Amino acid sequence: MTTQIFFASILCTLAFNTWAQTPEERGQDIVREMDHRNEGFISTIHEATMTLRNNQGDESLRHFTLKTLEVSGDGDKEVGLFDNPPDVRGTAVLTYSHGLKPDDQWVYLPAMKRVKRISSVNKTGPFVGSEFAFEDIASWELDKFRYKYLRDADVDGHECFVVEFRPAYEYSGYIRQIWWIDKTIYQARKIEFYDRKDELLKTLSLKDYQQYLNRYWRAHDLIMENLQTGKSTHLVRSTYKFKSGLSEQDFSETALKNIR
After folding, report:
1. Which of 57, 79, 139, 147 is the most exposed place for a label (fewest CB within 10 A)?
2. β-strands 200-212, 232-242: how paired?
3. Residue 8 domain flag
4. 106 with 253: CB under 8 angstroms?
5. Tally of domains within the chain
6. DSSP string for 149-195
7. CB contact burial 116-139 (16+ within 10 A = b; e otherwise)
8. What are the per-10-residue average pLDDT scores of the chain (260 residues)?
């Protein structure tokens, strides 16, 4: 009987602690766990193909390679190089993600043979004509948002926490985002983006998750749908390589000019 009372007491304490949390505290705990599970990947390289569809159903393709470097104490660094189609071949985009400080982004335009810095107030523009904004391609950092747990819900048979993300940084094109975070792998299954008028603008679906190094989960199939224009972008990722030997020198403005 004493043992039963002891375990009942523990369960009641856990239940009380969960109940006693504010929605903001619970949301923060959920995303902190999501952040923790992605620590230590060091660097990755992967291939990606984007299929852009307009509201008439016409399609165009973009193929690129994306390299990512984990940065201790700051946001990740990423560089993407496009090799197809011919009109964007050689275009490269470099991103230094941060927390509350504005992200640093540069684009190399081969036709002009120069690197152009992207203004902090222009991150809402489309990334190479896709439905992903420059803001969307920067890595997610814990300090970028304020969080609030909303409810539990199901996405395609996966139990999820539903958490509101409100940008804490300046010049976001969104007033808020709603994330469905898988309770098992702590990765997003779905994200809704709301514009500055708080109207639903875009929905991102993330599928075909695969695990690497027995720890890191990556979605290989992503669809961003613009509900206001009828356009969409289908992003397919492949050939992930982790701990790929990248260094800071691979993510400099000089490297951006010489990247091949």
Report:
1. 57
2. unpaired
3. no
4. yes
5. 1
6. EEEEEEETTEEEEEEEEEE-STT-S-SEEEEEEETTT--EEEEEEE-
7. eebeeeebeeebbebbbbbbbbbb
8. 55 56 97 96 96 96 96 91 91 90 88 84 81 89 95 98 94 95 98 97 98 97 98 97 93 78
User: Could you tell me which residues are beta bridge partners of residue 67?
Assistant: 45, 79
Tell me, yes or no, whether 40 lies in a domain.
yes
47 lies in which domain range?
35-258
Q: Is the pTM of this model over 0.85?
A: yes
CA distances from 218 to 61, 137, 163, 189 (A): 22, 15, 20, 11
Nearest-10 Cα torsion for 198, 200, 201, 206: 130
Could you tell me where the beta strands, DSSP code E, fall in the chain?
43-53, 59-69, 77-84, 92-96, 104-109, 114-117, 145-155, 158-167, 176-182, 188-194, 200-212, 216-226, 232-242
Q: What is the radius of gyration, based on Cα positions, of the chain?
A: 20
Per the listing, tokens 């690197």 go with 115
Maximum CA pair distance of the chain? 79
Task: Write the DSSP symbol of residue 248.
Answer: G
